[in-house]
Design goal:
By secondary structure, the chain is α/β, with parallel strands linked by helices. The chain is built from 5 helices and 15 strands.
Length: 252
């Protein structure tokens, strides 16, 4: 905090996009983060704590939108040991409010972030130790980029997934980016190729799910594509939903 009472935003240089004039913003009262994590959940009681444990210390805030879980997902999130009050939990019924559109749910989550960078992560994913250790260094050394990409290693029941052992997911990006499409979540709004960098393989993400969950997800994604084929485009529109924020209950 400087003498004037304004927050130190030295990590956040003004970004010039094309011929646009820079916008001078005043953050005297605002809380502006360097990096937030965004998650959407739906019946993730088996995974959510491990995911939160993995990322809690490397981000400034964690935005979670639950799509109407029927298990203990919300209970686990609300009872998490959130000692720094980083977690904001919202409930937005995935099928009623987002019409089963995964891109809409993700974009709504991103819109609740107040950060320069967004790390989007699924509850059944974790970052490896090298990426955890160097996370802040990586984003500060790549401020001229819009997307910082890294490999995701995919496992089913702890064994490498044969067809998709390594994939690129575009999970760390500037907060002005948004998702497009229903199932596959293409990212839009970033400069290609100048705004993109792929990290060395020593920095990666791991995704592990059961065979049963994998088959269930595939059926789920196909049902969405069949029901909403018209949603495979233009999801960068402004999304406004009436959602309820749940304050976390801190354990004594």
């Amino acid at each position: 905090m400087g003498e004037s009472g304004e927050k130190d935003l030295s990590f956040c240089p003004i970004l010039l996009r094309g011929n646009m004039e820079p916008v001078i913003l005043h953050y005297k009262e605002a809380v502006f983060h360097e990096a937030d994590a965004c998650l959407i959940t739906l019946n993730e009681e088996e995974n959510i704590k491990k995911c939160l444990d993995n990322i809690y210390n490397i981000v400034d805030g964690i935005i979670i939108i639950d799509g109407g879980s029927q298990d203990k997902t919300v209970e686990i999130i609300k009872s998490y040991n959130d000692i720094y009050k980083k977690i904001k939990l919202y409930i937005n019924d995935f099928f009623k409010s987002s019409n089963g559109i995964l891109g809409d749910q993700k974009n709504l989550c991103i819109s609740k972030s107040n950060s320069l960078w967004v790390l989007y992560i699924d509850p059944d994913e974790v970052l490896n130790d090298n990426l955890i250790k160097d996370f802040r260094k990586i984003i500060r050394e790549n401020q001229d980029k819009d997307v910082i990409d890294f490999i995701r290693y995919n496992y089913i029941d702890n064994k490498p997934e044969k067809l998709f052992e390594e994939t690129l997911q575009l999970r760390l990006f500037k907060s002005f980016c948004r998702y497009v499409s229903t199932s596959h979540h293409s990212l839009t709004g970033w400069r290609n190729p100048d705004g993109y960098i792929l990290l060395d393989k020593k920095y990666h993400m791991m995704h592990n799910k059961s065979k049963e969950r994998s088959e269930k997800n595939n059926r789920f994604y196909q049902s969405i594509d069949d029901k909403y084929p018209h949603k495979n485009w233009y999801l960068s529109r402004e999304i406004k939903y009436e959602i309820k924020e749940h304050e976390n209950e801190r354990k004594d």
